[in-house]
Amino acid sequence: MLRYTLGRLVSAVPVLLVVSLVSFAIIALVPGDMASEMAGPSATAEELARLRTQLGLDKPIVERMLDWYAALLLRGDLGESVLLRQSVTAAILERLPVTLSLTFLALMVAILLGVLAGMIAAVRPNTWSDQGVMATALVGLSLPDFWLGLVFIWIFAVQLGWLPTGGYVPFAEDPLGWLRAMAMPAGCLALTQMGLLARITRASMLDVLRQDFVRTARAKGLPGWVVVAKHAGANVLVPVLTVAGVTTGILLGGAVVIEQVFSLPGVGRLIIGAIQRRDYPVIQGGLLLTASIFVAVNLVVDLLYAAVDPRVRYDRR
C-alpha cells in the first residue's frame, strides 16, 4: 500500500505540470493583454510598453513559464496578483475556506441523500417510490445549478424570507449563520449530483441484491434492514466512492458559478474576477489549486477502495 501511495503521489506531479502548461497556453491565445486592461484606453504606446516591461509581459511565453515554474518549485511562490497587490497564495488562502466548506457541505448532502434515495428505490423496484426517486433524480440532473440558485433565492429569500440572498458568515464566528448562508448554495450544487448518486446506487444495489450471499443471508432469517445495510450496502460503496470522487471535481467547478450567484467570496469568484481583468498569476494559481484538490481527492478515493472492499488490493510486490 505504501509503494502504491508513493507511486500515485509521483504520478500526480506530471498532471499538475500539464495543467499549468495548458493554462499558460490558453492565456497566451486569448486576445488582448493585461497591460491594456490596467492602463486603460487613454494610455499611450510608451506607457503600455513601460507597463508591459514592468509586468514581464515583454518576455516570450516560454521564458515567463520557466520563471513561474522556478518560483513555484524552489520557493513555493505562485506569484503576485497585479490588481489585488498581494501574493496569489495569500489571496487564495484567504478565500479557500469558503470554497472548501461549500464543496464539502454539498458533497455530504449529495452522498447522504443520494445513496439513501438509491437504496430505497432498489429495495422497492418498479413501485411508486422507485419511480418517484428516479423521476426526481432525472429532474435534478437536468436542471442547471445557476438557474436553481435564482429560483431558490426567489422562493426561500424573497418570498419566504427564511434565508439570506447571499453573503458569507465564517463558521468560527457563527455556525448557525454559516449554515443559513450555505444552505441554498450547497443545495443547488448537491441536487444535480444527488440525482447521479441515486441512479448509480440503485443500479449497483439491484445487482448486489441478486447475488447468492444476499439470498443466503435472507435464508438465515436476518432482518431485511440488516441484509440491505450491512451485507448489500457495503458492496455498493465501491461504485459510490468512484462517483463521489468525480462528483467532487464537478462540485468544485460548479462552485465557480454558484459563488457568483450568491455573492460568496470564494476561490471561484476570485478566478472569475481574474479572468475578467486578465490577472494571469491569479488564473494560473487558481487552476493549479483546483487541479491539486481534484488529484488529492481521487488519490484518497483510490486508497479507500482497499478499506471498503477487501477484494481490492493495491499492495505491490
Spatial order of the strands in the main sheet?
A: 1-2
> What is the helix tally?
12
The 3D shape can be described as globular
- Proportion of helical residues: over 70%
SSE sequence, one letter per element? HHHHEEHHHHHHHH
CATH class of the largest domain: Mainly Alpha
Radius of gyration: 24 Å
Total number of beta strands: 2
Please name the CATH topology of the largest domain: MetI-like fold
- The span between the termini is 10 Å
Overall pLDDT confidence: 78
The helix/strand class is: mainly alpha
CATH architecture of the largest domain, by name, is: Orthogonal Bundle
Number of domains: 2
Strand content: under 5%
pLDDT below 50 for ≥5 consecutive residues: which ranges?
none
Largest sheet report: 2 strands, antiparallel
**What's the CATH H-level homologous superfamily of the largest domain?**
MetI-like
Tags for this entry?
317 residues, mainly alpha, MetI-like fold, 2 domains, 12 helices, 2 strands, 1% strand
Please describe what this structure looks like.
It is built from 12 helices and 2 strands. The protein is mostly helical and 317 residues long. It folds into 2 domains: 2-87, no CATH class; 89-308, MetI-like fold, CATH 1.10.3720. Strands 1-2 form a two-stranded antiparallel ribbon. β1 and β2 (86-87) form a beta hairpin. The longest helix has 38 residues, at 224-261.
